[in-house]
Amino acid sequence: MSANDSPSGAQQTKTYDSAFLKACRREPVPHTPVWFMRQAGRSLPEYLKVREGIPMLESCMRPELVTEITLQPVRRHKVDAAIFFSDIVVPLKAIGIDLDIKPGVGPVVAEPIRRRADLDRLRALTPDDVRYVTEAIGMLTGELGATPLIGFAGAPFTLASYLVEGGPSRNHEHTKALMYGDPELWADLLDRLADITAAFLKVQIEAGASAIQLFDSWVGALAPADYRRSVMPASAKVFRAVEGYGVPRIHFGVGTGELLGLMGEAGADVVGVDWRVPLDEAARRVGPGKALQGNLDPAVLFSTPEAVETKTREVLDAAAGLEGHIFNLGHGVLPTTDPDALTRLVEYVHTQTAR
Known about the structure:
alpha/beta, 16 helices, 46% helix, 12% strand
């Protein structure tokens, strides 16, 4: 089964004819669908209110809270898809890795993984490890109706980078040292993370997610040859593992202009593009048979409404000849973004692209 087949399941049936899923399948749409990475979260005052005093990882494990946060941008902005409120390190925490998300820093791992013996700490993920995810998605799909829910996970390279570095890194020196210096250990690490990631995505799809996105946030640090040799096999394993569900598979990374073709080759149905590469050029790099997602610079939203419309028009014009296009930012919503700017942006894209 591929993303062009009608998937089974009640929720997938309800959402199958949505503009978002039609665009993923490269079918005609009533308007260009819009959603935003990090739409469920930090830019919304209602999010800050319900999250007050609750640590990030704990908030990801409370089904009622996850449901409310995921629904907030759908209510406010009228986006065409919801994205499940979670974090890419949730499955690692669920299997017992000692980590925390520190405000202003990001995920921090107490004991980095750098030796073969450390792999023993990466056990298989089971649905029981993340029962709160299944519960939350069940609640969400009941509320969302015909609006699709996007599930997501971190890609093996990005998860490996956090685990090896011990936290966020600018240069990924420990990660690259392991990748180049012990390619067998590196391959085994990514293979194990691919299994954990695939299991996490399967839980979300089986609970009712209508599409999935694999975030490879840090993979833009690699050259294409290194990506093909040392990363693509694990990412491709993740995409193959969920192919049979028939839900669209989106792949996104930051600074990945030189990797776009390879990221599509890894198995994505939709390739996410950051703001550095125009969508028409991205389509040339990716090749036929893939939809594209993107790619307004998130910082544009801090300018005047007229400037936002001008830059949005540029994105839409560059996307005019695409087989399928989902409008998004080129990265996540920045924390201090005015929520009203996002609401206006959704309305503008819908109006300008109405068929």
